[in-house]
From TrEMBL:
Organism this protein belongs to: Streptomyces caeruleatus
Listed GO MF terms: dioxygenase activity
Name of the protein this chain belongs to: 2-oxoadipate dioxygenase/decarboxylase
Record-listed E.C. numbers: 1.13.11.93
Cross-referenced InterPro entries: HGLS (IPR009770), YdcJ_bac-like (IPR047869)
Length: 465
């Protein structure tokens, strides 16, 4: 019997999840169709330059999903499911601090970490976990009730977890077992038809719509799926022309003439979806909840820690200027700030150590008999080596929180007079039972491996960026 490798499992899972979500949320299919149209148009207009941050095949197939769980135990279980697909937890995101409204979650993203695996299929799942222990959101009584509710549910059947463990250990599954794994895994993220306890859901919703979506039901589900687009501003315009209500802004860096960096995201607004509601007398009535939406993203170049510090500084500058001149469009303010402070070329980003690049020898460089220079800058300047930007594979907490906020049914409640419970990457690593990897370290490893290969080929001392 033939076997299915981890990356094939990952690709099949992403494709099936996308089909399932499109059936449940038809506007998502529209989003995917418009993304494909925009990508095809950009490719025609820009040619090879359109594929500088990934081939059109990769970009078209690329998805990231988002799910929400309630406890460390559930997070450990979902890590086993994604581990079967060759996906590891990367990055720590505290949306409690990034959001103005009540978003009581901490998050990580499960994704491939090897460059070859990312090129094959870069599926990611942004995974948020509820924080019932944070007294700013939950008093002692509600925390106890919530934790008891979460402890009593089962999100992932034992058969799925057993198959997941086997796939992770063996890095493949026999074809029949792979099919069963995919059926169970996709089924675990379908929207449940089980009636929702209206009173319990409402209790949590008064605290946070996100808390209600996680802890107010006995299952989990895909909260959104996100295609990648090469021109997110054009996609926003086309979706609006089709009558799809989009959120007010595109989150992340502004549209400008310089290099695309990090991540830009937007979405259509959460739709009212019919749900069965269980009433206090035990009867079931029809109702509706707004929890799922369609997000789209445009990915840019990964920034170094120094580059990320500059990005955060510029965001602060934009916030300050926007508060002083509320009549001026925030996008216009951001664009002006970026053009004054952000390097306007990839070459300057690299020279100032603000972004990650990999380096490779130029095979067809004209030779004049001279030997190679000893520094990376001169190797690039003289045409010995070509710098290629590293795609940003991760997320931005403020942007994620902005998307969440734009799709909430209300602001919720938050007692800022109480001290919040501390969480960090080390705590999350313990909770998930796996090391939460540092994205900066992953990008640096990718860059450094390419530099080692170049210096070895040229017989040079180790090169430094």
């Amino acid at each position: 019997m033939s076997t299915i490798s981890q990356w094939q499992l990952r690709a099949a899972f992403a494709a099936r999840l996308s089909r399932m979500y499109g059936q449940e949320v038809p506007a998502y299919t529209t989003l995917v169709d418009v993304s494909r149209e925009v990508n095809e148009d950009v490719l025609r207009e820009r040619g090879a330059d359109a594929e500088r941050l990934g081939s059109i095949g990769r970009v078209t197939a690329e998805r990231h999903g988002a799910i929400r769980v309630g406890t460390p135990r559930e997070l450990q279980q979902v890590a086993r499911v994604f581990g079967a697909l060759g996906m590891r937890p990367v990055g720590f995101y505290d949306l409690r601090e990034a959001a103005a409204s009540a978003v009581p979650v901490v998050s990580t993203a499960f994704r491939p970490v090897d460059g070859e695996e990312l090129a094959r299929n870069p599926f990611r799942v942004f995974t948020s976990m509820l924080t019932p222990a944070d007294p700013r959101f939950f008093d002692a009584d509600l925390r106890a009730r919530l934790e008891a509710f979460l402890a009593a549910r089962e999100l992932f059947p034992p058969e799925l977890l057993a198959l997941a463990d086997r796939a992770e250990a063996e890095r493949e599954l026999p074809e029949d077992d792979a099919e069963r794994f995919l059926q169970l895994a996709v089924g675990a993220f379908e929207l449940s038809s089980e009636p929702v306890d209206r009173a319990w859901y409402g209790t949590l919703e008064r605290i946070s719509a996100v808390a209600a979506d996680i802890g107010g039901v006995r299952s989990t589900h895909i909260n959104h799926l996100t295609p990648r687009v090469l021109d997110i501003d054009e996609l926003y315009r086309r979706m609006t022309r089709r009558g799809i209500e989009m959120i007010d802004t595109i989150q992340g860096p502004p549209a400008w003439k310089g290099p695309d960096v990090l991540l830009r995201q937007t979405s259509f607004r959460a739709l009212a979806e019919p749900r069965a509601m269980r009433l206090a007398d035990g009867s079931v009535a029809s109702g509706a909840l707004r929890v799922r939406f369609g997000e789209v993203e445009a990915r840019g170049i990964a920034l170094t820690r120094q580059g990320r510090a500059l990005y955060d500084q510029l965001l602060g500058r934009v916030d300050e200027q926007a508060s002083q001149g509320p009549a001026e469009a925030r996008g216009d303010i951001a664009r002006a700030v970026w053009e004054r402070r952000m390097p306007g070329s990839e070459e300057e980003l690299a020279a100032r150590g603000l972004a990650y690049f990999t380096y490779r020898l130029v095979a067809d460089r004209p030779r004049d008999g001279s030997g190679p220079p000893a520094t990376l800058g001169e190797l690039v300047a003289q045409g010995w080596v070509r710098a290629e930007p590293v795609v940003y594979e991760d997320f931005l907490p403020r942007s994620a929180a902005g998307i969440f906020q734009s799709n909430l049914s209300g602001e919720g409640t938050r007692d800022n007079g109480r001290e919040g419970t501390a969480y960090d990457a080390a705590w999350l690593s313990g909770a998930v039972g796996r090391e939460v990897l540092d994205p900066f370290a992953l990008y640096a490893k990718q860059r450094d491996a390419s530099l080692t290969a170049v210096s070895d080929r040229l017989g040079l001392a180790p090169l430094t960026p």
